[in-house]
């Protein structure tokens, strides 16, 4: 994997794709600061790879008010950080055909964790990334469900759709800066083993790409799904060019 960044702070590193990506990056000689809520898993990650290659920070990104301080302390402790990998997420079923079963507090927390926290972390870390004399990156884990929503997961689908749009917008806004905006989009995953294999595949495909799409979406071929991706990308670029010319 050709990956130009040397120190990645990876949020959501204690399970699934995040764990796989953290392990993959370390094996490529990249220092990884793993961020998550589970101290035992963070400690195990550092113990496995050693403190010269790995470090960790405990954080609950759903606590939005704490995120500016978290980012400030993270940079003080790890000033060489040149890439922020935002990977955490929650996924629950909500059935609005049976409103009494839907707890809006849980729905809203999922929206906060999957989307609003990423916006807050982006805002908090951008000054550090923009001030660097070298190229830096913000990397986001999205999902195919952002383009083709899954009705059984309305909060997950909506939050990831919002994240996807946010990524496209800030990529355009930062196009002339030294901050690269990278986006990884896997399909729905169902197990720790599947997540780990997916993470390894992502690592292999990240070379030189700003968007990495793994596999397809249920009931559609990869060709059908990628046609949606390509047509949308063309429309986004046409709109961006129009808006640039208006200024």
How would you portray this structure in words?
The protein is an alpha/beta fold and 247 residues long. It has 2 domains: 7-215, NAD(P)-binding Rossmann-like Domain (Rossmann fold), CATH 3.40.50.720; 220-247. Helices cover 49% and strands 15% of the residues. It has 7 helices and 7 strands, in the order E-H-E-H-E-H-E-H-E-H-E-H-E-H. Strands 3-2-1-4-5-6-7 form a 7-stranded parallel β-sheet, with helices on both faces. The longest helix has 28 residues, at 104-131. It is globular.
Features:
247 residues; alpha/beta; Rossmann fold; 2 domains; 7-stranded parallel beta sheet; 49% helix
Helix count, DSSP H or I runs of 4 or more residues: 7
Distance between the ends: 39 Å
Question: What is the general shape?
Answer: globular
CATH architecture of the largest domain: 3-Layer(aba) Sandwich
Give the helices and strands, then pairings.
Blueprint: E1 7-11, H1 16-27, E2 31-36, H2 39-49, E3 54-58, H3 67-77, E4 83-86, H4 104-131, E5 136-141, H5 154-173, E6 179-185, H6 192-205, E7 211-213, H7 222-246
Parallel strand pairs: 1-2, 1-4, 2-3, 4-5, 5-6, 6-7
Helix pairs in contact: 1-6, 3-4, 4-5
Keywords: Oxidoreductase
Family: Belongs to the short-chain dehydrogenases/reductases (SDR) family.
Organism: Paraphaeosphaeria minitans
Briefly say what this structure is.
The protein has seven helices and seven strands; from the N terminus they run βαβαβαβαβαβαβα. With about 250 residues, it is of the alpha/beta class. The protein folds into two domains: about 210 residues, NAD(P)-binding Rossmann-like Domain (Rossmann fold, 3-Layer(aba) Sandwich), CATH 3.40.50; about 30 residues.
């Amino acid at each position: 994997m050709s990956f130009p960044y040397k120190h990645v702070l990876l949020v959501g590193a204690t399970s699934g794709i995040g764990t796989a990506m953290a392990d993959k990056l370390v094996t490529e000689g990249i220092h990884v600061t793993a961020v998550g809520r589970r101290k035992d898993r963070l400690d195990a990650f550092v113990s496995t790879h050693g403190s010269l290659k790995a470090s960790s920070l405990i954080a609950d990104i759903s606590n939005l008010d704490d995120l500016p301080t978290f980012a400030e302390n993270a940079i003080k402790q790890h000033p060489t950080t040149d890439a922020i990998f935002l990977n955490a997420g929650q996924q629950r079923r909500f059935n609005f055909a049976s409103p009494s079963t839907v707890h809006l507090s849980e729905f809203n927390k999922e929206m906060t964790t999957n989307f609003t926290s990423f916006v807050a972390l982006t805002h908090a870390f951008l000054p550090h990334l923009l001030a660097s004399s070298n190229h830096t990156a913000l990397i986001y884990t999205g999902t195919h469900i952002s383009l083709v929503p899954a009705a059984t997961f309305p909060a997950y689908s909506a939050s990831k759709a919002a994240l996807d749009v946010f990524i496209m917008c800030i990529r355009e806004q930062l196009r002339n800066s030294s901050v690269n905006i990278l986006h990884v989009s896997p399909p729905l995953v169902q197990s720790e083993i599947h997540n780990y294999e997916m993470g390894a595949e992502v690592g292999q495909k990240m070379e030189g790409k700003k968007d990495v799409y793994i596999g397809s979406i249920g009931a559609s071929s990869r060709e059908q799904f990628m046609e949606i991706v390509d047509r949308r990308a063309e429309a986004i670029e046409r709109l961006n060019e129009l808006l640039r010319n208006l200024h």
